[in-house]
Amino acid sequence: MRLAALGFALGVCLLQQQPVLPGAGGVALLCALASFGAVGFIRRVPPAVAGGATFVAFAALGFAWAAGLAHWRLADRLDAELEGRDVEVSGVVASLPQAFERGVRFDFDVETPDTGVPRLVSLSWYGGLAADDSPNGSSVRAGERWRFAVRLRRPHGSLNPHGFDYEAWLLERGIRATGYVRTPGRREEGVAPERLQTLVPRPGYLIDKFREGVREKILAALPDHPYAGVLIALAIGDQRAIDTGQWQLFARTGVSHLMSISGLHVTMIAGLFAALVSFCWRRSERLALALPAQKAAALAGFLAAFAYCLISGFAVPAQRTLYMVGVVAAALWLGRATSASRVLAAALLVVLVLDPWAILSPGFWLSFAAVAVIFHVSAGHTAKAHWLAQWGRVQWAVTVGLAPLMLVLFQQVSLVSPLANALAIPLVSFVVTPLALLGAVLPLQWPLELGHAILDALMATLEWLAALPSAMWQQHAPVPWTVPLALVGIAWLLLPRGFPARWLGAVLALPLFAVLPPAPAAGELWITVLDVGQGLSVVARTQKHALLYDAGPAFNATADSGSRVVLPYLRGEGVARLDALVVSHDDRDHSGGAGSVLEGIPVAALWSSLPAEHALLSAGVPAEPCVAGRRWLWEGVSFEFLHPLADAASGRGARANNRSCVLRIAAPGGRVLLTGDIERGAERELLARAPELLPADALLVPHHGSATSSSPDFVKQVAPRYAVFSVGYRNRFGHPREDVLERYRDAGSALIRSDTAGAIEMRFAPGTSRIDFQRERARRYWHDS
Fold it and tell me: Which long-range contacts (CB under 8 A, 24 or more apart) does 442-451 make?
């Protein structure tokens, strides 16, 4: 079982790393290989040979199984000719509607046949709020059947190093198109949204309806309570009920796994019901004779865990625990003893058979790794330790054991996690979660109020721990070869006392922290144009310095490119501080993420053309206007502002776009021109004042390729080898314009777009240069081409 599960997992992992899917012939060949390898599994051969054959056979089977399911899922796609057009569909709301500041978002099961629309899409309804008494404020409810006119597009998201893969997340959830509901306005005709049925009586929709009712009950019982969202997450697994600030607190203290449906919570529910049934069953002679109490308790525990997983949304940690409980229950029913490692292996195999995309989720790795670490440190201890010592050993082991994965996935580890979890685990799992469930299913309000009061006290302690200077360890993304070495070292370090030379484990883990990722040499210039959608953010690095030019857009009141794209990239690359932040001008798509950057990383200087009253200028960072003529030198690479002039920087009459900071960077290997959103007026001024400084090897095309910029004379003078357009996929402005693209083609420029290339990395070294695209370098079969 163990070798079979590990082999199957390896095969699934290999498939999810492929840039393209194997064809039907390749899948058939792998199935044949699996069948051949299975011969070693069933024939009497030496154990080593049988084990190797089993591993190889199940690896081939896992690869073929994942490939077959991937072909099936990708076949459910949006017809290309329907992208960006109005389509009339009917179907059922298939998730909990989530209200946001401009409307409501939900998954939609499409029932309209032969429309070229996938079976499951994600829809946003801007302005789709009703003036009813719903605490959620949503005009749509789970399980309702609606008719909509929608405008859809294929799954497409920003793609950056060390960043979140939105397209993989959609694939795992089975969502094959995203879009929004079209509501006819006064000057246009169309299909108005129409509710066709208030509830579709199918099991999945009924469960979602129940979950929605629980959410509304908790919100109604705890209005304006800051931690009501945590109780909702604990009761029904709706993690989006928790706000961004609270998630940051949980991440800094290492308790994020507790603030949703975790395996520990499922185990607690299963154990509680098993103990209750066992207690009652043993007191009935008739029941005990009909079925042993142990078997009845095992069945009750599994059914309780299954019910809890259903209402929680069936996240990977909950699945893992459910399948482990199921294996243990089956072993008890069959009267067969089984080891902990076999139970974990069986759960791993079942999870990946049902959902081979689970490995794309960080929760998959952290969940199984945490249980494996607990089993590892619990084995080999013959003497019975005090429960407190045992508890402390497990907390320490989980923190240390998960450190390599945490650094790979998030480039940070909470150092206060053992203390925070020692307090939070018993309170959240054994007190707050049962209270949340009682309040959810019983007509009582006091359990919710008591649970919130306990959370209030717990949060105060977590905030104190998070405020400690050394609460969080942050570093670069580990170099790949150091990770398996560190895993072996930590496994050795966590062996029971008495094993020789356990300290060698720490030596093996040392490269994980000490080996740094590649960085520019003296005289080199590395430019990374981050994929932030319709906006701009550029990182310029020299040997010892780093500059950020713009920080991308703000998406809403709680999320922006600074926190979601820029900071993860800087942290992953090992950039611990910024020597300069340039905010080119006061536009939301350029300055929206700057506040998060200033909060998340030390910044030595802020240069901008922002008005004096702008909030960023009072962030506590030395701030000066970007004025033409300001120049400096970093490790043989020169930087110079070409625009605006001093009087234009402080003038209020000029357009903000034409006050954009224009930065010229010149290295021995090439020149780069960053232009913000300047328009033709600023271009004419630059042509008149400093034409000799405009030629560049790489140009960040002004204003995303708008028709108001890139005048013919400007394009001719700059004559870039690379014309880089930072644009959002199918953006509403139509950037870049076709006539602008044609001008750069005529100038002999290579046209590079962030919406098709992802993040763009240019490296200029003396005598050579190189350019890489994230969508080519990290391509996976699900990525939009």
Answer: 445/221, 448/218, 448/221, 448/222, 448/231, 449/221, 449/222, 451/231
Query: Where does residue 678 rank: exposed (0-12), middle (13-18), buried (19+ CB within 10 A)?
Result: buried
pLDDT tens digits, one per residue of 533-567: 999 999 999 999 999 999 999 988 788 999 999 99
CB 241 within 8 A of CB 232: yes
**How crowded is residue 212: how many other Cβ atoms within 10 Å of its Cβ?**
22
**Residue 539: which of 585, 582, 584 has the closest Cα?**
582
- C-alpha–C-alpha distance, residues 249 and 513, integer Å: 24
Task: Please state, in angstroms and rounded to a whole number, the distance separating the CA atoms of residues 226 and 243.
Answer: 9
Beta bridge partners of 87: 150
**Cα–Cα distance measured from residue 193 to residue 145, given in angstroms and rounded to the nearest whole number:** 11
Nearest C-alpha neighbor of 177 from the set 110, 127, 113, 129: 110
What's the one-letter identity of residue 142?
A: A
Strand 103-110 versus strand 98-100 pairing type:
antiparallel
Both tokens of 344, joined, read 């974990």
SS (H, E, C) 148-181: EEEEEECCCCCCCCCCCCHHHHHHHHCCCCEEEE
Structure-token pair, residue 522 = 């003296």
Cis peptide before 644 (omega within 30 of 0): yes
* Helix ranges, 17-78 (H): 24-42, 47-75
What's the pTM?
Answer: 0.90
The better pLDDT of the pair 391, 532 is held by: 532
Q: How far is CA 454 from the centre of its chain?
A: 30
The percentage of the chain sitting over the pLDDT mark of 70, rounded to a whole number, equals 91
Task: Tell me, rounded to whole angstroms, the distance of Cα 32 from its chain centroid.
Answer: 36
Q: Give kind and range of the element (H or E) at residue 277.
A: helix 263-281
Separation between Cα atoms, residue 343 and residue 773, nearest integer Å: 43
Distance CA 562, CA 588 (A): 12
Decide: 136 and 99 in contact? Cβ < 8 Å: yes
Whose tokens are 């064809």? That residue is 23
Strands 760-765 and 525-529: antiparallel
**Bridging pattern class, strands 145-153 and 103-110:** unpaired
| Alpha carbon distance 226, 223 (integer Å) | 9
Alpha-carbon distance of 40 to 52, in angstroms, equals: 8
- Identity at 457, one-letter amino acid code: A
- For 588, the 3-state DSSP assignment is helix
Write the CB contacts of 735 (distance below 8 Å, at least 6 apart in sequence): 534, 703, 704, 705, 706, 725, 727, 728
The values of phi and psi at residue 725, to 5°, are -110, 115
User: Measuring CA to CA, which residue among 410, 305, 312 is closest to residue 362?
Assistant: 410
Nearest to 635 by CA among 474, 770, 468, 522: 522
For 689-715, the pLDDT digits (tens) are: 999 999 999 999 999 999 999 999 999
DSSP conformation class of 753: E
* Per-residue tokens: 499: 């094993």
Q: Which of 422, 465, 472, 409 is nearest to 258 (CA)?
A: 422
Question: Does 736 sit behind a cis peptide bond, omega within 30 degrees of 0 on the bond before it?
Answer: yes
